[in-house]
Automatic annotation (TrEMBL), chains A, B:
This is Rrf2 family transcriptional regulator. PANTHER family: HTH-TYPE TRANSCRIPTIONAL REGULATOR YWGB-RELATED, WINGED HELIX-TURN-HELIX TRANSCRIPTIONAL REGULATOR, RRF2 FAMILY. Gene3D superfamilies: Winged helix-like DNA-binding domain superfamily/Winged helix DNA-binding domain. Pfam families: Rrf2. It comes from the Bacteria. It comes from Paenibacillus antarcticus. One of its GO terms (molecular function) is DNA-binding transcription factor activity. GO terms for cellular component: cytosol.
Amino acid sequence: MNSEFNIAVHCLTLLSLKKDHMANSDEIAKSVCTHPARVRKVLGLLRKQGYVTTKEGVGGGYLLNADSSKVTLGDLYRLLARGSLQPSWCSGGGESACVVSEHIQEVMERIYSGGELALERHYDNITLLDVTRDIQSENQP
Amino acid sequence: MNSEFNIAVHCLTLLSLKKDHMANSDEIAKSVCTHPARVRKVLGLLRKQGYVTTKEGVGGGYLLNADSSKVTLGDLYRLLARGSLQPSWCSGGGESACVVSEHIQEVMERIYSGGELALERHYDNITLLDVTRDIQSENQP
DNA sequence: AAAACTGTTATGCATATAATTACAGATGAG
DNA sequence: CTCATCTGTAATTATATGCATAACAGTTTT
């Protein structure tokens, strides 16, 4: 799995906690600890789904455009990480005349997608608001 | 995620379906479609957990040593894939004086391990016997 | 003693991930 | 209008991971 899901959670949490709910890619990148171009790539996807709006030009940046109690980690997982549970290499599918070899790929695909569904259902119960609260409670131990 | 979980499921299913529940790494590797050394590596781990026994020397190989209705995909996931949900690169942790940047890593770690727990609970309900049945029913559509 | 296995390590190669650079397009300030 | 600033996006490079392959010691059967 790559880290775009992580980055999305980070960015939205950050925007959610800022007073004006706004920041540009430079500021966000410093917090995320990555390159601004990477932040723009992820936030570009979030923009297409309507989670943020962008303002170009001087003083521009990204503006949160969603209710943090309505956005779930499930939404973000589906958008940015779906399919990553299944590895690119999978067993079987060769020329072996073996029942397992011939059918394992369909079976494993169901196993991976079933697992992913369980994962998504779990993440559907966690909202962005929950995450912002976690961040804040970590700040006051 | 790497494919050792997949390989483990494949190997145990294969052994389970063979009449004598036995095969050597060459035969298994052909079915899995990989190199025998890779099969030996995974089956070595399964041996340490008692799922299989090995017989060295001529006519040797791996022998299934478990009840397929008792072994779950959860067991195999924990053994071979636990921790793979969390990417190696994670956000935050830099020098940014930002609440999110300072605490996101602990929060994300909980998010990933919580997700993995949901995944494991799902896989705990699928046994190796279920998989062998799936393979066989794929064979007769 | 020889042959057939496993167990394990080392090496090379392919792929995936992240960093970086670059630049076109859009917008607001002056 | 023009310039500075910011997003959107593509191309390139660097690094990490995953897999294939080769090699060899150790074990067991014949």
